[in-house]
């Protein structure tokens, strides 16, 4: 399989794990409360630290941006899941493309576009926290993944 597929899958899994972890908490934790049992602050970003040889300050900035973006990602993921459930329900209950199904499909497509746009904005913002050479390498690695994003890792036509 493509390396990009696995990166996208890892990002989506991290997003879902973050969503369910934060959803179970009644209040948002402070930035210092994100320590894990192994002592690292953001284990899901360790690959980024190593891949782009981030300094401590660069990693701190990227981590703060990641934490700020998580609620946006989680909200969009939840909305997409609700819209997808609605579409599937209408498809399974019907035998033709009704106006209600068309509207539900448009709503889901809009939410997917909103998600992709938000993620692109997050990538560009993250790149501004890095020196120019690292920012370019980061964007070169990540933008193709977002442009091929299907929102469904099980989709056999992902990236086509």
Percent helix: 55-70%
Helix/strand-derived class?
Answer: mainly alpha
Distance between the termini: 13 Å
Spell out the helices and strands N to C: HHHHH
Regarding quaternary structure, what we see is: single chain
Poorly predicted parts: 23-40, 156-160
Strand content: under 5%
Arithmetic mean of pLDDT: 79
Biggest β-sheet description: none
The CATH topology name of the domain at 3-23 and 60-147 reads: Four Helix Bundle (Hemerythrin (Met), subunit A)
Per DSSP, the total helix count is 5
Keywords:
0% strand; 160 residues; 5 helices; single chain; mainly alpha; disordered C terminus; elongated
Description:
The protein is mostly helical. The protein has a domain at 3-23 and 60-147: Four Helix Bundle (Hemerythrin (Met), subunit A) (Up-down Bundle). The protein is 69% helix and 0% strand.
Quick structural gist:
With 160 residues, the chain is mainly α. The protein has helices spanning 3-23, 46-51, 56-93, 99-128, 132-147.
List strands and helices in order, with pairings:
Blueprint: H1 3-23, H2 46-51, H3 56-93, H4 99-128, H5 132-147
Helix pairs in contact: 1-3, 3-4, 4-5
């Amino acid at each position: 399989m493509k390396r990009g597929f696995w990166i996208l899958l890892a990002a989506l899994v991290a997003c879902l794990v973050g969503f369910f972890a934060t959803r179970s908490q009644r209040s948002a934790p402070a930035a210092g409360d994100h320590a894990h049992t192994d002592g690292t602050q953001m284990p899901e970003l360790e690959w980024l630290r190593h891949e782009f040889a981030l300094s401590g300050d660069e990693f701190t900035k990227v981590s703060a941006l990641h934490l700020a973006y998580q609620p946006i990602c989680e909200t969009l993921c939840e909305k997409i899941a609700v819209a997808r459930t609605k579409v599937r329900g209408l498809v399974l209950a019907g035998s033709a493309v009704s106006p209600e199904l068309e509207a539900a499909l448009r709503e889901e497509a809009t939410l997917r576009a909103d998600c992709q746009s938000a993620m692109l904005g997050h990538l560009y913002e993250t790149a501004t926290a890095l020196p120019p050479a690292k920012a370019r390498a980061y964007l070169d690695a990540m933008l193709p993944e977002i442009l091929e994003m299907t929102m469904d890792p099980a989709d056999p036509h992902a990236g086509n």
